[in-house]
Fold each of these.
Amino acid sequence: MELKADLHVHTTYSGDSIITPEDLVFYAKKRGLNAVAITDHNQVEGARKIAAETDFLIIPGTEVSSQGGHIVGLNVSEQIPKGLSTDETVDRIHSAGGIAIACHPYALFKGSIGKHVTQKFDAVETINASSFPFRSASSKAEKLAKNFNLPCVGGTDAHYGPVIGIAYTIVNAELNLEGILEAVVKRQCQPAGGSIPLRMRVENQGRFFMKYLKNRRKRVS
Ligand SMILES: [Zn+2]
Ligand SMILES: [Zn+2]
């Protein structure tokens, strides 16, 4: 069956996201998604907990800061250390049973992996709804995927609930974790959706700033 999965979402466990577990499931359902990958920065705790608490299909993952840039590992439930070389990070993701995705390879201000991508990767995120500048980052990522002959996927890189599902991956698979991962590796997938509208990007920054102020007040008092 044809499924829609946002393969790149951050929760409050990322520190820089305001998406609570409740938000995640609420907006994923509202957008008509069938699955969401939780890819918190350098940790797997949230994904594990949320997956255990909901009947919505969660793909446990993480976004690892390697020396070369950010790498998303899907189906990874153990912590991969940050700061390792690109090669070693991909190897660790594979030995943890996961697949390695070159996320937002050419987005500015994101710790993008660009020229460090190798044939070892399993897929390239050619649509990342948060990336800037969206068009050129996407077309460079498409070229990269073509050069390495790798499957293309899409995700939002959401840090704010209402943007979940603006970009996603269409996969031809059974509705379970293994089915979706296998479909990505076998290229039974295609990225869809587009860029987060400017209005929502501004809203996101505003909400995050309010949360930061609130936490600061709490620490001061
Ligand atoms: Zn990133
Ligand atoms: Zn991310």
Note: The chain has a mean pLDDT of 95.
Amino acid sequence: MTQLDPQLFCEEPARDERFVVVTRWQECNNLPDGHPEKECEFFHRQLNEEINGLENSARCLTDFPEADWELRMCIARQCADEARHVGMFQDMLEARGGHIGQYPVMNFQYTIINKIDTLIGRLAVQNRSFEAEGIDAIQFGIEEAQAKGQDDIAEFFDAQLADEITHVRYSNEWIRTLVKRDPRGFLQMARALTSSAIAFRQVMGSGGMAVRYGVDPAIRIEAGFDPEEARAAAEHAKASRNLQG
Ligand SMILES: [Fe+2]
Ligand SMILES: [Fe+2]
């Protein structure tokens, strides 16, 4: 099993006794497509990821009290959005007969991101990377739900998508402002992105690294990426999926 480098992760966040916490993708309940519990497990996993999103944003507020007030307000709004998403996923899970603690969960988003010691680094990894990729996954989820006639799921993802786009957009805008103010921010972001990419690979192993989603450049642009970045992300995703065959 892949070894995790303790230098790349912080301590686990608190979870009550209902949760079974694991640290690697292969320890999760990775059900095959078409499995009757696949949807339940997905909502359960997402619920905990949204808790991670809330915790990460809250830690940005407590760890960087000197940040600009307007940026802190964006982060505070994100806390409120992520808390709402947790509730939405819990509702979806319970409506299908599932319950909290039914499957193992991972807190890698928390343990990777809170090891980063700069706010610009955390925004680059959490919002500009993990959440930007989350947008691709949600877009895929909307199309899949529509194709299956699951209107409630499509509407739910649509509401979540609108929030996640604002999270990625404000981080893109603030990263530009912060780098203009202090170009060392570039190096801080590069350091954070490099260490988090290594850590992510350790968590996921070869089994969890499959790229399932394409990138829609128009949504990336709406989320504050410039057209060249959006085009490059779309091409990279396409090349990765082709490599997987
Ligand atoms: Fe969210
Ligand atoms: Fe978010």
Note: The mean pLDDT is 94.
